[in-house]
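User: I want to check something. If I give you two sequences, will you return the structure for each one separately, not as a complex?

Assistant: Yes, each is folded on its own. Here is the first sequence with its structure:
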Amino acid sequence: MTGDTRSAPGSDQERTQLPAGFRLRHEPPTNAEYVRLRAISGLSPRTPEQAAGALSSSWAWTIVRSADGGLAAMGRVIGDGTWYFHLADVATDPAQQRRGLGRAVMEDLIACIDAAAPPDPYVTLLADPPGQHLYRSLGFVDSAPSLGMRLPR
C-alpha cells in the first residue's frame, strides 16, 4: 500500500503514509522474523515454539515490509473478535524507526477492529515507555483505576 493514505480510525485525518518502497500486509511474519524483530526492538525474547502459537492463533496481523522484502514493523491483535481486542507485539526494526511504520501498523489494526467489531469494543494494550507517546497520540488512555497485571513464571 505504498503511497496509500486512508482515514485514521475515529477521525477525519488521513492515515499515515508509508515511505516509498514499503508495503503494508495483512499476514503474520515468519517464525524467524517474529523472534528476531522482538529481540532487536527491545521486546522480551521468545522462542520459536512460543512464536508458533502467536503466529497461528492471533485474530489479526499487520506487518510492513521494506522494498527488499525484509520485515520492518509488525503488530497483532488477540481477542474474541466481538468485544475484547488486545494489541500485542507492536515492534519496529530499530533501523526503520521514526518513519511512521509503527503508527501505520497501529492505525491499520485499529481500523481492522473498527470494521469487524460491534459498537464499543474493549481495546487494550500494555504500553512500554518507548511506545507510550505513540499510543496516547492514537487516543489510548491509562486504564486507571484498573491496573495491568501479570502472573510471573
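And separately, the second sequence with its own structure:
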Amino acid sequence: MSEKARSLSDVEFESNIVWLKDISSIPYVREHLEKFASRRKGKLKYGKYQIIGYSELESDAPSRMPGCFSRRVFWLADHDRFYEEGGVYKVSCPMEAVDPLTVKAKILGKKTERAWNGTLPKDVY
C-alpha cells in the first residue's frame, strides 16, 4: 500500500504539481510519498500503475539522504472507479486516495464526497 504525505513538513518544499491528465473527471487519485526520488523535478514512476501526476520541488529543497528527495506521485490502478464505475470502489475509495481537486503544492490532499462517491463517513479523513 502507498504511504501518503501526512504532515505539512512532507510537502513544504514543493513548487508545483504536474498533472498528466485532466483531473476534472477523475474522482480520486491514489497518493504515494516517494521518499527516495533521485531528482527534484521531472516525471516519477510508481510500479506498473497509471501515473496521473507528481510533485516537483524547489531548487533548494534539501535531500533526506545524499541524492534522495521526498516527492508525491499520484496514480490509479486498473480497478479504480475512473476505469470501473461499478467496481469495488463504486462507493468509497482506497485509504491512500485523495480528491485531485484538493491537491496543491505545499497543501495536503483530502478525501471529499466526490472522491467517496457519496456521503463521506465522519471517521474518514
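Because they were folded independently, the notes below concern the second chain alone. The CA atoms of residues 103 and 109 lie 4 Å apart. The beta strands are 14-19, 29-37, 50-57, 69-76, 97-98.
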